[in-house]
Specification:
By secondary structure, the protein is mainly β. The strands form nine sheets. Strands 14, 17, 18, 20, 21 and 22 form a six-stranded mixed sheet that branches.
Protein backbone atom coordinates (compact mmCIF):
# COMPACT_ATOMS: atom_id res chain seq x y z
CA UNK A 1 0.00 0.00 0.00
CA UNK A 2 1.36 3.46 -0.87
CA UNK A 3 1.46 6.61 1.26
CA UNK A 4 -1.97 7.75 2.46
CA UNK A 5 -3.08 11.34 2.01
CA UNK A 6 -3.77 12.71 5.54
CA UNK A 7 -6.06 15.53 4.39
CA UNK A 8 -9.63 15.35 5.74
CA UNK A 9 -12.10 14.12 3.16
CA UNK A 10 -15.61 15.52 3.49
CA UNK A 11 -18.59 14.27 1.48
CA UNK A 12 -21.51 16.72 1.18
CA UNK A 13 -23.66 14.53 -1.08
CA UNK A 14 -26.04 13.22 1.64
CA UNK A 15 -26.32 15.01 5.00
CA UNK A 16 -28.67 12.29 6.34
CA UNK A 17 -26.24 9.39 5.86
CA UNK A 18 -23.21 8.22 7.84
CA UNK A 19 -23.79 4.54 8.58
CA UNK A 20 -20.47 2.93 9.44
CA UNK A 21 -20.12 -0.37 7.59
CA UNK A 22 -17.28 -1.76 9.65
CA UNK A 23 -14.74 -0.91 12.31
CA UNK A 24 -12.15 1.75 11.75
CA UNK A 25 -9.04 0.24 10.11
CA UNK A 26 -5.73 1.66 11.29
CA UNK A 27 -2.31 1.27 9.65
CA UNK A 28 1.01 2.76 10.78
CA UNK A 29 3.22 4.61 8.34
CA UNK A 30 6.52 6.44 8.81
CA UNK A 31 7.31 8.79 11.68
CA UNK A 32 5.05 6.83 14.06
CA UNK A 33 1.82 8.30 12.65
CA UNK A 34 -1.37 6.26 12.27
CA UNK A 35 -3.75 6.62 9.33
CA UNK A 36 -7.29 5.67 10.28
CA UNK A 37 -9.61 4.82 7.41
CA UNK A 38 -13.42 4.59 7.73
CA UNK A 39 -15.67 3.38 4.96
CA UNK A 40 -19.04 5.18 5.13
CA UNK A 41 -22.27 4.80 3.17
CA UNK A 42 -23.17 8.16 1.67
CA UNK A 43 -26.19 7.09 -0.40
CA UNK A 44 -28.01 4.55 1.70
CA UNK A 45 -26.12 1.72 0.03
CA UNK A 46 -28.96 0.31 -2.07
CA UNK A 47 -26.55 -2.28 -3.43
CA UNK A 48 -23.35 -3.68 -1.98
CA UNK A 49 -20.44 -1.38 -2.82
CA UNK A 50 -22.66 1.45 -4.05
CA UNK A 51 -22.19 5.05 -3.00
CA UNK A 52 -19.24 4.44 -0.71
CA UNK A 53 -16.88 7.09 0.66
CA UNK A 54 -13.46 6.74 2.29
CA UNK A 55 -12.31 9.08 5.07
CA UNK A 56 -8.62 9.04 6.03
CA UNK A 57 -7.46 10.69 9.29
CA UNK A 58 -3.96 10.95 10.69
CA UNK A 59 -3.07 10.50 14.40
CA UNK A 60 0.14 10.04 16.37
CA UNK A 61 -1.41 7.18 18.38
CA UNK A 62 -4.09 4.56 17.67
CA UNK A 63 -7.60 6.07 17.86
CA UNK A 64 -9.30 5.67 21.23
CA UNK A 65 -12.58 4.00 22.04
CA UNK A 66 -15.02 6.25 23.89
CA UNK A 67 -18.08 5.69 26.08
CA UNK A 68 -20.69 7.77 27.87
CA UNK A 69 -20.34 7.20 31.61
CA UNK A 70 -22.84 9.60 33.16
CA UNK A 71 -25.42 12.35 32.81
CA UNK A 72 -26.19 15.06 35.38
CA UNK A 73 -28.96 15.62 36.28
CA UNK A 74 -30.53 12.26 35.54
CA UNK A 75 -33.96 13.84 35.03
CA UNK A 76 -33.32 17.45 33.86
CA UNK A 77 -35.97 20.15 33.85
CA UNK A 78 -36.29 22.98 31.34
CA UNK A 79 -33.94 25.09 33.47
CA UNK A 80 -31.21 22.46 33.88
CA UNK A 81 -28.05 22.32 31.75
CA UNK A 82 -27.25 18.66 31.02
CA UNK A 83 -23.64 17.72 31.75
CA UNK A 84 -22.42 14.50 30.08
CA UNK A 85 -19.34 12.60 31.30
CA UNK A 86 -17.25 10.62 28.78
CA UNK A 87 -14.34 8.21 29.15
CA UNK A 88 -11.73 7.04 26.65
CA UNK A 89 -10.14 3.62 26.95
CA UNK A 90 -6.66 5.21 26.96
CA UNK A 91 -5.01 8.59 26.65
CA UNK A 92 -5.75 9.99 23.20
CA UNK A 93 -3.29 11.48 20.71
CA UNK A 94 -2.89 15.25 20.48
CA UNK A 95 -4.64 15.25 17.08
CA UNK A 96 -7.76 13.44 18.27
CA UNK A 97 -10.63 15.50 19.73
CA UNK A 98 -13.52 14.39 21.94
CA UNK A 99 -16.98 15.72 21.09
CA UNK A 100 -20.52 15.64 22.40
CA UNK A 101 -23.03 15.69 19.54
CA UNK A 102 -26.68 16.40 20.31
CA UNK A 103 -29.86 16.87 18.34
CA UNK A 104 -33.58 17.48 18.65
CA UNK A 105 -34.45 15.79 15.34
CA UNK A 106 -32.65 12.43 15.46
CA UNK A 107 -29.44 13.94 14.05
CA UNK A 108 -30.90 15.29 10.80
CA UNK A 109 -29.16 18.37 12.10
CA UNK A 110 -26.67 18.27 14.94
CA UNK A 111 -25.00 20.48 17.49
CA UNK A 112 -21.31 19.74 18.19
CA UNK A 113 -19.57 20.59 21.49
CA UNK A 114 -15.88 19.85 22.06
CA UNK A 115 -15.49 18.18 25.47
CA UNK A 116 -13.28 19.53 28.24
CA UNK A 117 -10.60 17.18 29.65
CA UNK A 118 -10.96 16.07 33.26
CA UNK A 119 -7.25 16.19 34.05
CA UNK A 120 -6.51 12.46 34.16
CA UNK A 121 -6.16 12.00 30.40
CA UNK A 122 -9.19 9.74 29.96
CA UNK A 123 -12.26 11.59 31.31
CA UNK A 124 -14.07 14.47 29.58
CA UNK A 125 -17.22 16.53 30.10
CA UNK A 126 -19.48 18.65 27.92
CA UNK A 127 -22.74 20.43 28.68
CA UNK A 128 -25.94 20.69 26.63
CA UNK A 129 -27.91 23.91 27.12
CA UNK A 130 -31.29 23.67 28.93
CA UNK A 131 -34.05 22.32 26.70
CA UNK A 132 -37.71 23.47 26.64
CA UNK A 133 -40.38 21.31 28.22
CA UNK A 134 -41.57 18.57 25.90
CA UNK A 135 -38.54 18.94 23.62
CA UNK A 136 -36.78 15.60 23.05
CA UNK A 137 -33.00 15.73 23.16
CA UNK A 138 -30.68 12.95 21.94
CA UNK A 139 -26.91 12.85 22.10
CA UNK A 140 -23.93 10.66 21.27
CA UNK A 141 -20.20 10.91 22.00
CA UNK A 142 -17.47 10.69 19.36
CA UNK A 143 -13.85 11.49 18.49
CA UNK A 144 -12.28 12.97 15.37
CA UNK A 145 -9.03 14.52 14.22
CA UNK A 146 -11.01 17.25 12.47
CA UNK A 147 -12.30 20.45 14.07
CA UNK A 148 -16.03 19.75 13.86
CA UNK A 149 -17.08 22.88 15.75
CA UNK A 150 -19.94 24.58 13.94
CA UNK A 151 -20.81 21.66 11.64
CA UNK A 152 -24.44 20.56 11.63
CA UNK A 153 -24.58 18.23 8.62
CA UNK A 154 -24.66 14.52 9.45
CA UNK A 155 -22.70 13.52 6.36
CA UNK A 156 -19.75 15.72 7.19
CA UNK A 157 -19.73 14.75 10.87
CA UNK A 158 -20.05 11.02 10.20
CA UNK A 159 -17.34 10.97 7.55
CA UNK A 160 -14.86 12.60 9.93
CA UNK A 161 -15.67 10.48 13.01
CA UNK A 162 -13.04 8.07 14.35
CA UNK A 163 -14.92 6.52 17.29
CA UNK A 164 -18.60 6.83 18.18
CA UNK A 165 -20.80 5.55 20.99
CA UNK A 166 -24.55 4.88 20.83
CA UNK A 167 -27.46 7.29 21.05
CA UNK A 168 -28.64 8.43 24.48
CA UNK A 169 -31.80 10.25 25.48
CA UNK A 170 -30.97 13.31 27.59
CA UNK A 171 -34.61 13.81 28.61
CA UNK A 172 -35.84 10.39 29.77
CA UNK A 173 -39.28 9.95 31.22
CA UNK A 174 -38.93 10.28 34.98
CA UNK A 175 -40.05 7.28 37.00
CA UNK A 176 -43.64 7.47 38.24
CA UNK A 177 -44.08 8.75 41.75
CA UNK A 178 -44.71 5.83 44.07
CA UNK A 179 -48.15 5.50 45.55
CA UNK A 180 -47.93 6.67 49.14
CA UNK A 181 -48.01 3.78 51.55
CA UNK A 182 -50.74 4.23 54.12
CA UNK A 183 -49.31 4.83 57.55
CA UNK A 184 -50.61 2.06 59.77
CA UNK A 185 -52.04 2.86 63.11
CA UNK A 186 -49.22 2.25 65.57
CA UNK A 187 -49.74 -0.72 67.82
CA UNK A 188 -49.76 0.02 71.52
CA UNK A 189 -46.31 -0.24 73.07
CA UNK A 190 -46.10 -3.53 74.96
CA UNK A 191 -45.17 -3.53 78.61
CA UNK A 192 -41.44 -4.27 78.82
CA UNK A 193 -40.42 -7.60 80.29
CA UNK A 194 -38.00 -7.13 83.23
CA UNK A 195 -34.63 -8.90 83.05
CA UNK A 196 -34.22 -12.43 84.31
CA UNK A 197 -30.88 -14.21 84.83
CA UNK A 198 -30.89 -17.65 83.22
CA UNK A 199 -27.21 -18.50 83.83
CA UNK A 200 -25.49 -17.26 86.99
CA UNK A 201 -21.76 -16.38 87.03
CA UNK A 202 -19.56 -19.31 88.12
CA UNK A 203 -16.85 -19.38 90.78
CA UNK A 204 -13.36 -19.09 89.34
CA UNK A 205 -9.97 -20.43 90.48
CA UNK A 206 -6.75 -19.05 88.95
CA UNK A 207 -3.08 -18.86 89.80
CA UNK A 208 -1.74 -15.51 90.97
CA UNK A 209 -0.93 -13.31 87.93
CA UNK A 210 -3.64 -14.89 85.76
CA UNK A 211 -6.97 -13.25 84.83
CA UNK A 212 -10.44 -14.57 85.61
CA UNK A 213 -13.51 -14.19 83.38
CA UNK A 214 -17.06 -14.09 84.73
CA UNK A 215 -20.16 -14.41 82.52
CA UNK A 216 -23.91 -14.08 82.91
CA UNK A 217 -26.84 -14.91 80.63
CA UNK A 218 -30.04 -12.90 80.96
CA UNK A 219 -33.36 -12.44 79.13
CA UNK A 220 -35.81 -9.56 79.03
CA UNK A 221 -36.90 -6.70 76.77
CA UNK A 222 -33.79 -5.29 75.08
CA UNK A 223 -31.66 -3.35 75.45
CA UNK A 224 -30.19 -4.95 78.56
CA UNK A 225 -27.59 -3.03 80.59
CA UNK A 226 -24.95 -4.69 82.78
CA UNK A 227 -22.90 -3.45 85.74
CA UNK A 228 -20.35 -5.78 87.35
CA UNK A 229 -19.35 -5.36 91.01
CA UNK A 230 -16.45 -6.56 93.15
CA UNK A 231 -17.21 -7.05 96.82
CA UNK A 232 -20.35 -4.92 96.34
CA UNK A 233 -18.60 -1.98 94.60
CA UNK A 234 -19.21 -1.10 90.94
CA UNK A 235 -16.28 -1.81 88.63
CA UNK A 236 -15.77 1.16 86.22
CA UNK A 237 -16.29 0.18 82.56
CA UNK A 238 -17.49 -3.36 83.38
CA UNK A 239 -20.77 -3.02 81.46
CA UNK A 240 -20.94 -6.09 79.23
CA UNK A 241 -22.46 -9.52 79.78
CA UNK A 242 -18.97 -10.78 80.71
CA UNK A 243 -16.11 -9.31 82.74
CA UNK A 244 -12.41 -10.21 82.72
CA UNK A 245 -10.35 -9.16 85.72
CA UNK A 246 -6.88 -7.63 85.53
CA UNK A 247 -3.95 -9.88 86.42
CA UNK A 248 -4.78 -11.20 89.88
CA UNK A 249 -2.76 -10.71 93.07
CA UNK A 250 -2.84 -12.68 96.29
CA UNK A 251 -5.13 -10.06 97.89
CA UNK A 252 -7.85 -10.92 95.33
CA UNK A 253 -8.29 -14.35 96.88
CA UNK A 254 -11.86 -14.73 98.18
CA UNK A 255 -13.25 -11.68 96.33
CA UNK A 256 -16.94 -11.79 95.38
CA UNK A 257 -18.11 -10.80 91.90
CA UNK A 258 -21.74 -10.12 90.88
CA UNK A 259 -23.60 -8.23 88.15
CA UNK A 260 -26.74 -6.07 88.04
CA UNK A 261 -28.79 -6.52 84.84
CA UNK A 262 -31.34 -3.81 84.08
CA UNK A 263 -33.71 -2.58 81.36
CA UNK A 264 -36.75 -0.32 81.10
CA UNK A 265 -38.77 -2.90 83.04
CA UNK A 266 -36.54 -3.16 86.09
CA UNK A 267 -33.33 -4.79 87.32
CA UNK A 268 -32.04 -8.02 88.85
CA UNK A 269 -28.78 -8.86 90.70
CA UNK A 270 -26.93 -12.10 90.11
CA UNK A 271 -25.52 -14.46 92.72
CA UNK A 272 -22.01 -13.83 94.00
CA UNK A 273 -19.19 -15.72 92.26
CA UNK A 274 -16.11 -16.38 94.42
CA UNK A 275 -12.62 -15.82 93.02
CA UNK A 276 -9.95 -18.14 94.39
CA UNK A 277 -6.39 -17.04 93.69
CA UNK A 278 -3.80 -19.75 94.26
CA UNK A 279 -0.33 -18.61 95.32
CA UNK A 280 2.91 -20.60 95.10
CA UNK A 281 4.66 -21.60 98.36
CA UNK A 282 6.97 -19.08 99.99
CA UNK A 283 9.35 -19.88 102.87
CA UNK A 284 9.04 -17.25 105.56
CA UNK A 285 11.35 -18.94 108.13
CA UNK A 286 14.35 -20.91 106.92
CA UNK A 287 15.59 -24.00 108.81
CA UNK A 288 18.37 -23.04 111.27
CA UNK A 289 21.80 -24.65 111.71
CA UNK A 290 22.03 -27.15 114.60
CA UNK A 291 24.89 -28.19 116.93
CA UNK A 292 24.53 -31.33 119.11
CA UNK A 293 26.66 -33.82 121.01
CA UNK A 294 27.08 -37.23 119.41
CA UNK A 295 24.13 -39.45 120.35
CA UNK A 296 21.68 -36.52 120.58
CA UNK A 297 18.98 -35.81 117.99
CA UNK A 298 18.61 -32.61 115.98
CA UNK A 299 15.31 -30.98 114.97
CA UNK A 300 14.97 -28.79 111.87
CA UNK A 301 11.84 -26.66 111.15
CA UNK A 302 10.55 -24.46 108.34
CA UNK A 303 7.67 -21.98 108.06
CA UNK A 304 6.00 -21.51 104.65
CA UNK A 305 2.92 -19.81 103.21
CA UNK A 306 0.93 -20.38 100.02
CA UNK A 307 -2.24 -22.05 98.82
CA UNK A 308 -2.90 -25.10 100.92
CA UNK A 309 -2.32 -27.93 101.10
CA UNK A 310 1.43 -27.53 101.35
CA UNK A 311 3.63 -30.61 101.00
CA UNK A 312 7.12 -31.03 102.51
CA UNK A 313 10.07 -33.24 101.64
CA UNK A 314 13.25 -33.01 103.70
CA UNK A 315 16.62 -33.93 102.25
CA UNK A 316 20.00 -34.80 103.76
CA UNK A 317 22.95 -33.89 101.59
CA UNK A 318 20.53 -33.59 98.63
CA UNK A 319 18.91 -37.01 99.12
CA UNK A 320 15.25 -37.34 100.12
CA UNK A 321 14.73 -38.62 103.66
CA UNK A 322 12.04 -41.31 103.70
CA UNK A 323 8.97 -40.25 105.71
CA UNK A 324 10.28 -36.72 106.35
CA UNK A 325 7.20 -34.97 104.94
CA UNK A 326 6.18 -32.45 107.58
CA UNK A 327 7.06 -28.87 108.38
CA UNK A 328 9.70 -30.10 110.84
CA UNK A 329 12.11 -33.03 110.85
CA UNK A 330 13.90 -34.67 113.82
CA UNK A 331 17.04 -36.58 112.90
CA UNK A 332 17.88 -39.96 114.57
CA UNK A 333 20.60 -40.02 117.30
CA UNK A 334 23.63 -38.50 115.67
CA UNK A 335 27.07 -39.96 115.12
CA UNK A 336 30.40 -38.38 114.30
CA UNK A 337 29.74 -39.23 110.64
CA UNK A 338 26.75 -36.83 110.64
CA UNK A 339 28.98 -33.86 111.35
CA UNK A 340 28.72 -31.27 108.55
CA UNK A 341 25.59 -32.80 106.99
CA UNK A 342 23.28 -30.41 105.13
CA UNK A 343 19.55 -30.49 105.70
CA UNK A 344 16.97 -28.74 103.46
CA UNK A 345 13.27 -29.04 102.65
CA UNK A 346 11.27 -28.71 99.40
CA UNK A 347 7.79 -27.16 99.88
CA UNK A 348 5.22 -27.69 97.09
CA UNK A 349 1.58 -27.03 96.30
CA UNK A 350 -0.65 -26.99 93.16
CA UNK A 351 1.10 -23.93 91.74
CA UNK A 352 4.77 -24.83 92.20
CA UNK A 353 7.57 -25.50 94.67
CA UNK A 354 10.35 -23.79 96.61
CA UNK A 355 13.52 -25.19 98.25
CA UNK A 356 14.79 -23.90 101.56
CA UNK A 357 18.34 -22.92 102.42
CA UNK A 358 20.65 -25.64 103.72
CA UNK A 359 20.91 -26.00 107.49
CA UNK A 360 24.30 -27.36 108.76
CA UNK A 361 24.40 -30.08 111.41
CA UNK A 362 27.44 -29.93 113.70
CA UNK A 363 28.12 -33.01 115.81
CA UNK A 364 30.60 -32.43 118.68
Amino acid sequence: MGRCDDRDRRDHTNPFSGTQLGPTNTITLENDFYYSMRVVDTEGQPFPGTGMSLAVMKTSAPPVAISCTGQTPEYPTSSDPITVTMTTNQAKSVEERVYLRWSNDWFITSQIIEASPGGDGVTYTATIQPQPDGNSCFYTVLTSTADLTGYTGSGIIDDLTLAVNGIFNALPTPPPSPTPTPIPTPAPTPTPSPPSITTQPDNKTVNVGQTARFRVTATGTPPLQYQWRKNGTNIPGATNSSYTTPATVAADNGSLFSVIVSNSGGSVTSNNATLTVRTPPTITTQPADKSVIAGQTAKFSVTATGTVPLHYQWTKNGVNIAGATKASYRAPPTTAADNGSLFAVVVTNVTGSVTSNNAILTVR
